[in-house]
Predict the 3D structure of the following.
Amino acid sequence: MWRWVLIAPLLVVLVIFALSNTQPVDVGFWPFDLTWQTPLSVAVLSVSALAFLVGAVVAWASGMPQRRRARDLSNASRLLQAEVEQLRAEAAKPVPGSAATAAPATTRRPATALPAP
């Protein structure tokens, strides 16, 4: 819903721009001998779209080191979590011959000296 609230005015502006700039313009590339005639709105919107795509690629490429680091840290975290689970499982196992597995010892009170008769 909110997406259309933001996109609809932009589309209206683009359509009005395209309809009001229909005069032909010669578009040429300098190092080459290519020239063709196109409406002004098509030329401007094409250059704008190309600039947007170049900017998006640059932004995506600049985020690659952070994504790689996040992926490496995620893998390290997963390995450490597995190691913690393994150590917890080993700690929960009783050790043979230890006091934990032996029968509980009975506690005796120390003998007290009886008074002499």
About this structure: The first strand starts at residue 24 and ends at 29. The first helix runs from residue 2 to 20. Residues 17 and 41 are 7 Å apart (CA to CA). The helical segments are 2-20, 40-62, 64-92.
